[in-house]
Amino acid sequence: MSSVVYYRFLHQKNKNVIHFDGTSINVFDLKREIIQQNQLGSGLDFNLKLFHSDQQDKEYELDQDIIPRSSYVLVKRLPVNHKSGKFNNAARYVTGKPRINKRAIATSNTTTNIPNQQVLDDSATEEDKIKMMFENQSNAWAQTQDELSHHKIVYKPQNTTAPTDAPPPGYICYRCGKKDHWIKNCPTNNDPNFEGKKVLRTTGIPKSYLKTISKEELEKKANELSTNDSGDVVDNDGNAILITDEGDYAIAVADTKTWQNYQERIKNAQMKSQNEYQNKLLAKIKQDNKLEYIDPLNENKVLNPPIYKTACCQNITDLKKLKNINYNKSDLESQLIENDFHCPNCGKEDNYIDSLIENKELSEELTKYIETKETELGIKDPSKRPIDEELPDAKRQKLPQFDPAMFPMGIPPPPGMFIGMPQFPFK
């Protein structure tokens, strides 16, 4: 039966195929077929290696390894290294025979040393079979342990960096903050009394929002530095000490312009919502002919409890200059102070603030009226709603996502903005 194995050279894109008889082919025969198919010559000036396609770093090392049919292997052609011995070429795949690997012989020898497992006849009970199975496993494990005890231990040298090796440009030892050594060679590693401080990185913060601080200036303020609840280093003003990618110290400055723009947008949205609310409520009051609910000092504004009136003008019959004798408390007090305590309606003197009279009945009546009309008109006082409800949905979605640097000095940013770094001293 004809079978195939697919292969591809690492420097090529297309696959090739080798036909053979049987269900598998060994590495030696496959290499010989590849050399002959590609007319690579005698094999004296190169070596050929085969690798698994799913694990490209795993090589078919032994010539006796079996490759099943329909497999896919990678082929790499290498130059001859004369220091590795006379077998370091592909000549034997053209003219010679497979080289027997000592490791394969050792494996076969060890398998012959394993004691024969005990076999039970068919008449044995199930419990005897289970017991014998565990005994066979114990014997096999004991044999394996005996073999491992005679193996030679090979120690792999650690890939350590010599103390004299200088780190690349831009490298920072995040233990002591210096740039002239690797962190594994830091002089403070063996210092049991060394205590670093946690410094945050400037990842995600624009450079225009950072103010660089020299190390000398930071050393002068070392006594003023402290740590917050999160263990971050902060100064007296609450500003976190940051470290840039270049190893310099910095603090985040406030993005005042963006903060003011945000506050202005919120304020404008509140004023617009309040005006719309007042206009709808005022139109309904005029429609219901409830003029006593309108502010006499501003006819485009509805009175807001608590409501007061002067001692000289108690009844509707006392109306002269104005259309209402009821006022907002704050507006009435300001009006009296600005006009030497003259009544805004009749002009009478000596209307002092402590002589004002509260109209509780009208205040309660107005409160109930407003609640009824809000339900009827489907409106709500903006001053009683959250700030983000003042903005339309489209604008609310476009609100800026603030960096910690956008907040004014002294206002802490939301938690989780920074990524903590290793302990960091100021020495």
TrEMBL record:
UniProt xrefs under Gene3D superfamilies: Phosphatidylinositol 3-kinase Catalytic Subunit, Chain A, domain 1, Zinc finger, CCHC-type
Q: Does the keyword Transmembrane helix apply?
A: no
Question: Do you know which InterPro entries this protein is assigned to?
Answer: DWNN_domain (IPR014891), RBBP6 (IPR033489), Zn_knuckle_CX2CX3GHX4C (IPR025829), Znf_CCHC (IPR001878), Znf_CCHC_sf (IPR036875)
Q: Where in the cell is it found?
A: Nucleus
Q: Which SUPFAM superfamilies match?
A: Retrovirus zinc finger-like domains
Q: Give residue ranges for domain CCHC-type.
A: 173-187
- Its recorded name reads Uncharacterized protein
Predominant location category: nucleus
The organism's superkingdom is given as: Eukaryota
